[in-house]
């Protein structure tokens, strides 16, 4: 099965987060048929990571995720591109990594492992589970694949998810002096958040804030007793710096509830590759036991998660070449 057939095959098996088992089982069988030792590592009921290796203690690993965002979009292709869900995020990457690993094996290099996780798009639960795997200890370099336009990402921003909650007092809307509007308090806080210049970082770039969801109130004729906003902040500094700044903005007008956080990460730079800092988060912050992280993959993050997601066939081939070169450079062969 060649690179493009493998990409198409993986894409044709739906694997929206939570529903990765079928693609995992197919990958297990495929890799076993090629001669790999393959484990299904249970993450939760009907969710398992794939861990495959050629020798007992590989130092070099290639990794990405098997899940996709919804909805499933079946693959189509023309001469230049493969379209559909997972083409660049991240089934084309799985295909490029397996193709690279097989080329390396053909040259007698067997110090290679493959890790394919579940749940990257929602919680990185697969990566958290993989972090406890005994083979992590022996890993020296892990190249994570996400769409970086085939450039080596030397840094990725962190992500900080939180809610700001306000409370007031319900009253008849004709007698506002009897109540206290939680929505107006929330709007005031959010206006201040929007005006705030959060600290940025020379290496990672600008800290950005998305107010993604606002909820509150009960009816048109009731002064709203509760309201909340969900924010996702792309971190370029440690979370504590931003959290302190945010608490200074919110003060006692509302409450901050932290939902999750991954800190910004610096990754290994290798000579001879174009480099960049990416704004998105990956499984890497949760794979801390797996050696030095690197991040590179074909395709653009700007088309990932969209209905017209695609990858250039040429970029898949270039990615194979990059993975082979990185393996040889890092393993010093
Ligand atoms: Zn991805």
Brief descriptors of the model:
single chain; 333 residues; alpha/beta; Aminopeptidase; Alpha-Beta Plaits; 2 domains; six-stranded mixed β-sheet; four-stranded antiparallel β-sheet; 7 helices; 27% helix; elongated; binds zinc ion
Task: Tell me about this structure.
Strands 1-2-6-3-7-15 form a six-stranded mixed beta sheet. It has a four-stranded antiparallel beta sheet with strand order 10-11-9-12. Strands 4-5-16 form a three-stranded antiparallel beta sheet. The longest helix is centred in the C-terminal third of the chain and has 19 residues, at 313-331. The protein is built from seven helices and 16 strands. By secondary structure, it is an alpha/beta fold. The two termini are 27 Å apart. It is elongated and about 80 Å long. Zinc ion is lined by residues 65, 89-90, 120, 146. Zinc ion binds next to loops.
What are the bound molecules? zinc ion
- Characterize the biggest β-sheet: 6 strands, mixed
The secondary-structure element order is HHEEEEEHEHEEEHEEHEEEEEH
Q: Give the low-confidence spans.
A: none
Q: Indicate the structural class.
A: alpha/beta
CATH superfamily of the largest domain: Zn peptidases
Helix content: 25-40%
> What fold name goes in the CATH topology slot of the largest domain?
Aminopeptidase
The CATH C-level class name of the largest domain? Alpha Beta
Q: Span from first to last CA? A: 27 Å
In total, how many beta strands?
A: 16
Corresponding CATH architecture of the largest domain: 3-Layer(aba) Sandwich
Please compute the radius of gyration using only Cα atoms. Answer: 23 Å
Give the count of structural domains: 2
Q: Which strands sit side by side, in order, in the main sheet?
A: 1-2-6-3-7-15
């Amino acid at each position: 099965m060649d690179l493009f057939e493998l990409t198409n095959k993986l894409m044709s098996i739906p694997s929206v987060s939570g529903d990765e088992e079928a693609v995992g089982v197919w990958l297990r069988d495929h890799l076993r048929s090629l001669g790999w030792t393959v484990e299904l590592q249970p993450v939760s009921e009907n969710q398992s990571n794939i861990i495959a290796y050629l020798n007992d203690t590989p130092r070099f690993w290639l990794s990405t995720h098997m899940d996709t965002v919804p909805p499933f979009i079946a693959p189509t292709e023309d001469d230049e591109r493969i379209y559909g869900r997972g083409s660049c995020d991240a089934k084309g990457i799985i295909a490029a990594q397996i193709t690279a690993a097989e080329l390396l094996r053909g040259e007698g290099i067997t110090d290679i492992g493959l890790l394919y996780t579940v749940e990257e798009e929602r919680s990185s639960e697969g990566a958290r589970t993989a972090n406890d795997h005994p083979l992590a200890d022996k890993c020296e370099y892990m190249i994570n694949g996400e769409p970086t336009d085939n450039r080596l990402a030397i840094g990725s921003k962190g992500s900080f998810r939180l809610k700001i909650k306000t409370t007031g007092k319900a009253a008849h809307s004709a007698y506002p002096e009897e109540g206290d509007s939680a929505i107006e308090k929330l709007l005031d806080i959010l206006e201040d958040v929007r005006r705030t210049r959060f600290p940025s970082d020379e290496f990672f770039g600008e800290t950005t804030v998305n107010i993604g969801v606002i909820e509150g109130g009960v009816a048109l004729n009731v002064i709203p007793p509760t309201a909340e906003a969900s924010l996702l902040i792309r971190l370029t500094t440690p979370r504590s710096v931003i959290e302190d700044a945010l608490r200074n903005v919110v003060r006692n007008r509302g409450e901050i509830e932290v939902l999750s956080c991954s800190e910004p990460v610096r990754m290994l730079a290798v000579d001879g590759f174009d480099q960049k800092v990416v704004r998105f988060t990956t499984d890497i912050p949760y794979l801390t036991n797996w050696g030095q992280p690197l991040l590179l993959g074909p395709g653009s993050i700007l088309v990932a998660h969209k209905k017209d997601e695609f990858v250039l066939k040429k970029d898949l081939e270039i990615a194979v070449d990059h993975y082979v070169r990185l393996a040889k450079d890092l393993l010093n062969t």
